[in-house]
Design a protein that fits this description.
alpha/beta; globular; about 280 residues; 8-stranded mixed beta sheet; single chain; Rossmann fold
Length: about 280
């Protein structure tokens, strides 16, 4: 299907500007999608962007099914589908206790492995408005993005079929307030019927409150912990933050292959490729 390209700047025509920005009015008057908002509408109007994915950290943009770490993501995908049989699970928040644990790496590759199944669609959202790196891993522009949308003004479509991306957008001074103003909840409500999975990369949970706010809009939370790096008390603090909310599991990142008899009990991702581990440390 030939899809008309939209300039990757400004506001995609599928979204209209809303003059009101208070929390009370945002849900009702926020950026309004057209009434006949379907997947075909989104496909035709989202920004068509050139992507140059980082080959060291993005595992599924080629046909090498044996690439190191790929099997662990397929296992994680299977576990999430098993959970879905017992609970509503579509919007998954990826966070960590601290920066540089690998949450961006996990979020990006989890979205990719989801769309490797025939006909499955995934929307990947960079909601880390403080230290966004997803656009770097995917090799694309950071704008227009979520901050533009949340301010009242943006979806990218790249080379991988059925994978769509909302980057973080430009840096803003009030990210927590933007997350809480009602527009993101409205966006997720409108796009949720169009996708099989929505994967959201968030800021780390210990330094700032954004991920706790984002949890309110999600069905499940995965916490990324880096092996031999994350302090125990920080990991415990992150777990306690979400244990009474939507916590569904922990991804143990950076483990050596077959290094521990316990590794099979975790969603073991990444391994002895140090260069790959350090490429995306969002």
């Amino acid at each position: 299907m030939d899809v008309p390209a939209v300039e990757a700047a400004g506001m995609p025509p599928v979204i209209e500007r809303a003059p009101l920005s208070t929390a009370a009015s945002a849900a009702a008057a926020g950026p309004a999608f057209s009434n006949a908002f379907t997947f075909d509408t989104l496909l035709a109007r989202c920004a068509q962007s050139e992507w140059n994915p980082d080959p060291k950290s993005m595992l599924f943009f080629n046909d090498d099914e044996r690439k190191y770490g790929a099997e662990e993501f397929r296992t994680l995908r299977s576990r999430l589908y098993q959970m879905r049989e017992k609970m509503p699970l579509k919007k998954v928040l990826i966070t960590s206790a601290l920066p540089k644990e690998g949450k961006t790496f996990v979020a990006a590759n989890l979205a990719q492995v989801m769309v490797r199944q025939h006909g499955r669609r995934a929307l990947l959202i960079d909601a880390d408005l403080r230290g966004a790196r997803l656009h770097q891993a995917l090799g694309t522009s950071s704008t227009p993005g979520l901050s533009e949308y949340l301010l009242g003004e943006s979806v990218q479509r790249g080379p991988m079929e059925n994978l769509f991306f909302i980057p973080s957008g430009r840096t803003v001074s009030n990210p927590a307030e933007l997350v809480a103003n009602g527009r993101l909840k409205f966006l997720l409500t409108r796009v949720e019927p169009l996708f099989d999975w929505i994967i959201i990369d968030s800021p780390p949970t210990v330094p700032v409150s954004d991920s706790s706010l984002l949890d309110n809009f999600c069905d499940g939370v995965l916490i990324v912990v880096r092996s031999n790096t994350t302090p125990f008390d920080m990991a415990r603090k992150a777990r306690l933050e979400f244990q009474d909310k939507h916590l569904i599991g922990v991804v143990l990142n950076g483990i050596e292959a077959d290094s521990s008899p316990y590794s099979r009990y975790y969603y073991g991702v990444n391994g002895n490729n140090k260069e790959m581990q350090e490429t995306v440390q969002g």
